[in-house]
Specification:
Blueprint lengths: L1 H20 L19 E3 L1 H9 L3 H11 L6 E7 L3 E6 L1 H10 L7 H5 L1 E6 L10 H19 L3 E6 L5 H13 L9
Helix pairs in contact: 2-3
């Protein structure tokens, strides 16, 4: 679905540039914006056109956004930065189309392999904090996403895991306090 959406975007940009500016484009580049809040796809075509048309890339991008037709799967287009045209996908529609097309299903060989997710290992020698709760939520969410995608997942969740910390304490008693293992 995403590849098809990208092709639709490229075609729409190509047609809009031709109609608005009279320029034929061989290729239309789509990039991934550096932050999610900037959209799902970014098109730097205004920078290329600025050299040809001797106009500001931001002005060209603004005109291009107005000239773009409605594109199925795209919620909106907006000008960003110095002249990028950023596209925001209709995530509900894209997710629905992907799941009905089976794109979230993995191949049988990938689904057959077991994945082990280990999370929420709190150090008992330190105070608990909000980061521990965050890690528990992230770990559980990741497990649920993998299971939804059809993966076999084993969760290893060691609350109050004392492995390395206890070993450090024992070594400390042996070398600093000069105690034997029986005394420790």
């Amino acid at each position: 679905m995403i590849e098809q959406l990208h092709r639709s975007l490229q075609d729409a940009v190509r047609v809009a540039v031709n109609k608005r500016f009279g320029v034929e484009l061989d290729t239309v580049v789509l990039e991934k914006p550096p932050q999610v809040k900037l959209g799902d796809a970014a098109c730097p075509v205004a920078f290329e056109l600025a050299r040809r048309l001797k106009q500001s890339p931001r002005d060209i991008a603004g005109e291009l956004v107005k000239a773009l037709p409605a594109i199925r799967g795209v919620e909106r287009a907006a000008v960003a930065g110095g002249g990028y045209v950023n596209f925001y996908f209709d995530r509900g529609l894209v997710f629905h189309a992907a799941t009905t097309a089976g794109e979230t299903k993995l191949s049988l060989s990938a689904a057959a392999a077991k994945v082990i997710i280990e999370h929420t290992n709190i150090n008992p020698n330190k105070a608990a904090h909000i980061g521990h709760l965050r890690n528990a939520v992230l770990g559980d969410s990741f497990v649920r996403l993998l299971r939804f995608a059809g993966r076999r997942v084993e969760v290893q969740n060691y609350i109050d895991n004392t492995g390395v910390q206890v070993a450090d304490v024992v070594v400390g008693f042996q070398h600093l306090e000069k105690k034997t293992l029986a005394q420790v």
